[in-house]
Amino acid sequence: MSAICDHVLTNAKVVTMQPGEAGYTVSQPCNIGIREGVITEISAKAIEAHQQFDCQGKLVTPGFIDCHTHLIFAGSRADEFEKRLQGVPYQEIAKQGGGILSTVRATRLASEQQLTESALPRLDGLIRTGVTSVEVKSGYGLTLNDEIKMLRAAKALEAHRKIRVTTTLLAAHALPPEFAGRADDYIAHVCETIIPMVAEENLATSVDVFCESIGFNLEQTERVFEAAKQHGLQIKGHTEQLSNLGGSALTARYAGLSADHIEYLDEAGVKAMARANTVATLLPGAFYFLKETQRPPIELLRQHKVPMAIATDLNPGTSPFADLTMMMNMACTLFGLTPEESLRGVTCHAAQALGYGNTRGQVQAGFDADLAIWDVTHPAEFSYFQGAPRLATRLVAGEFDHV
After folding, report:
1. Which tens digits make up the pLDDT trace of 277-301?
2. By the 8 A CB rule, do 53 and 8 touch?
3. Distance between CA atoms of 273 and 269, rounded to whole angstroms?
4. DSSP state string for 51-92
């Protein structure tokens, strides 16, 4: 006889997000058994459990996953937003002390506790849109101590909210002022000092690089990937956002989990990603905020069956959005995704982009009981209607978080 479950969700209409058409189909009312934070069974029959929760016919989906954020930072760049709208060029704003280095200065001055506390309202915004897992990158410290401070602040979020945090080292985000004109020297510092320390202290599971004309070139990116590989860390890439340097193909060559932004990705890069099963993470918030016109190659990604994730890219400079369902809407309206593609983009494909494709992002036996329960009747509504509260409650590792 099987062990009694800790919880059972009864009268649940489930959208499992398992592969195939059935994964997007709303089930008949059923029961979901949960034991020790894991889904044990989904059945139309009664399941014995210590506690029952009646879903009252509400829709149950996997908890949403925001697989690309810069959630930890200090300061605000609302003044820059205002200046840009008044016609002040970015170069002039940077000369006045603005741009990414203004966030770097503010982040360096903030304590770890201050960084965690200032991130909580942003995290709450994500939670209200059904997020149960979030990836958080460093990249606004650009020194060993400040990058470590950011990663620790991100991990500390789990002590304040029911949330799963995955941390990514993005020390190769921008060139710090101390290394002006010496990008190769900074990359050496990242590879020889920052990555080894972060790996030793188990502060991140992945390493990311901004591979771009205003970031780091292919050779520098590969040096970072090599160092990450040597220290047992997984690979991600900020690639092909503003031009086509071949960063996505390089990410795929290193079996990268995901290549993100990818507006300028070509077919050779798409094919490389398909061979490596590297996820294409779409960031429509940055596309919208920057008024870009080059859309990601959605049809090529479909043609070559590259999984597409969707994320907020939450950051102070180019995507100040703490709402994942808004990104689902943008992915549909700006990039032409279907509502099913957008829902997969924040569930099963987002889980794959973080290396959790076999344990999160689907409602099925053996997967983590990270679930969202919604006052929604059809799954297309997540991409359709915005602003009205729809989340009834979340479960993270089988524990309820009543909203």
Report:
1. 999 999 999 999 999 999 999 999 9
2. yes
3. 6
4. EEEE-TT-EEEEPEEE--------S--HHHHHHHHTT--HHH
